[in-house]
Structures are given as structure tokens and as C-alpha cells.
Design a protein that fits this description.
Layout (H helix, E strand, L loop, with lengths): L1 H17 L11 H7 L2 H23 L1 H22 L7 H18 L1
Helix pairs in contact: 1-3, 1-4, 1-5, 3-4
Amino acid sequence: MMSTVCFILFLAFMLWMNTSKRIAWKDKSKLLTYMSGREKQSRLMATALFSLAVIISIYTVGMACGLFAFIVILMCMGCLIVLFFPFSYFGIRTVLGLYLCSFLIEILIH
């Protein structure tokens, strides 16, 4: 479940960062361009995804560990997005591929 939490936080942080006026990058997808024009809906969706990630994290490992894991993963996803996405190092296919691989490994180990 933690790989799913990571993926949800990745999406949520991406939606939230996309609404910023100071951050712009080339090769923005059509969906992100569409969502950047709808700041209120985008931030509402990001807040819902943040809340979902907190709930899943707390449900998976407990209250204290879940909140701590949520904060650590949120900071990690924020750093990854701010550093790598504007330079187009990773595309959506790469991110989805990494998520699916980590999810399958998590399922096989558990």
C-alpha cells in the first residue's frame, strides 16, 4: 500500500505545483495545461488526494507511523517533482512503470 501512497502523493503534489504561477515548464501535457487554468478545482482535487494518502497511510501502519511516513513521503515526492519534472527527465509512462513495478514487488513480498 505504501507504493500507492507514494503514487497518490506524487499526483497530488503535481496537481498542486501545477497551479503555481512561478513554475512553468516546457512540454506540459494537455491535461496539466487544462488543470492549470482551473486552479480551484485542481487544488481541491489535490487536497482530496492528500487526504486519501493520509488515510491509507494511517490505515496501513498505524497513527504515529502513518503520519510520519506521510510527511516523509510528501517531502520526497515534492523534491522529486521540483527537481526532475520541469526538465522532463521522467515522463508519465516512466512514472506509471515505476509505480506498477513497485506495487508488484510490494504485493509479492507481502
